[in-house]
């Protein structure tokens, strides 16, 4: 298991987008970004439940994340939505191929 490391909100969004774009391959994302499998899994599920707000770190006495501009939030959301679309397209392609 990888040791934990601090990540920014932007990094977490990038990791989630990468994971979704690669068919929710949590292990691949964990290896690529040097975080634990469990953490990637957790971030993806938090994102699916609450969007980018679910990726913010709300633990104890840590300093709050720098406030993002609306444009930055929309860019992160767009990146993740594009990854979801790609994931759905891959699922459809697999279903079409298995039906032949």
- E-strand count: 0
Shape: globular
- Broad structural category: mainly alpha
Helix content: 55-70%
Radius of gyration: 15 Å
Query: For the report, how would you describe the main beta sheet?
Result: none
Discrete helix count: 4
Distance, first to last CA: 41 Å
Average pLDDT taken over every residue: 84
Tell me the β content. Answer: under 5%
* Low-confidence runs of at least 5 consecutive residues: none
Helix-strand topology string: HHHH
Fold and architecture overview:
This protein has about 100 residues and is mostly helical. About 65% of the residues lie in helices and about 0% in strands. It has helices at about 10-20, 25-35, 35-50, 70-100. The longest helix is centred in the last third of the chain and has 30 residues, at about 70-100. It is globular, with a radius of gyration of 15 Å. It starts with 8 loop residues before the first helix and ends with a helix. The mean pLDDT is about 85.
Quickly describe the structure.
With 100 residues, this protein is mainly alpha-helical. It is built from 4 helices and no strands.
Please name the defining characteristics of this protein.
100 residues, mainly alpha, 0% strand, globular
SSE topology sketch:
Blueprint: H1 9-21, H2 26-33, H3 37-50, H4 70-99
